[in-house]
């Protein structure tokens, strides 16, 4: 893959990881708030697990792209 394309993919993957981290953090806050107030958290915990799953998927993809980018030879200037 072309270095510029790979760098663009990496930037997009970084964004997805950041967004996923925010979703996980937000959902944890919701679960904690519901639990503190004595509400049922089962549906919120399911959603939290889903967000956590996607965070792992996005992080793994981002890390693979980073490795691929570092393995590319640097073109002479």
Structure description:
By secondary structure, the chain is an all-alpha fold. The chain is built from 2 helices and no strands. The chain has helices at residues 3-36, 42-71. The two termini are 19 Å apart. The mean pLDDT is 95.
Task: Describe, in short, the structure shown.
The chain is mainly α. The protein has helices at 3-36, 42-71.
Top keywords for this entry?
mainly alpha
Topology diagram in text:
Blueprint lengths: L2 H34 L5 H30 L6
Helix pairs in contact: 1-2
Quaternary structure annotation: single chain
List SSEs in N-to-C order.
Answer: HH
Helix/sheet category: mainly alpha
Q: Tell me about the largest β-sheet.
A: none
Q: Please report which band the strand proportion falls in: under 5%, 5-15%, 15-25%, 25-35%, 35-45% or over 45%.
A: under 5%
Shape: rod-shaped
Relative helix content: over 70%
Spatial gap, N to C terminus: 19 Å
Average pLDDT rating: 95
Number-wise, the strands total 0
Rg, Cα atoms, Å? 18 Å
Number of helices: 2
- Poorly predicted runs are none
């Amino acid at each position: 893959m072309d270095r510029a394309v790979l760098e663009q993919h990496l930037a997009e993957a970084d964004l997805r990881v950041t967004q996923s981290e925010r979703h996980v953090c937000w959902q944890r806050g919701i679960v904690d708030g519901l639990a503190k107030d004595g509400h049922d958290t089962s549906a919120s915990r399911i959603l939290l697990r889903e967000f956590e799953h996607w965070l792992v998927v996005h992080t793994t993809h981002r890390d693979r792209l980073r490795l691929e980018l570092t393995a590319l030879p640097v073109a002479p200037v």
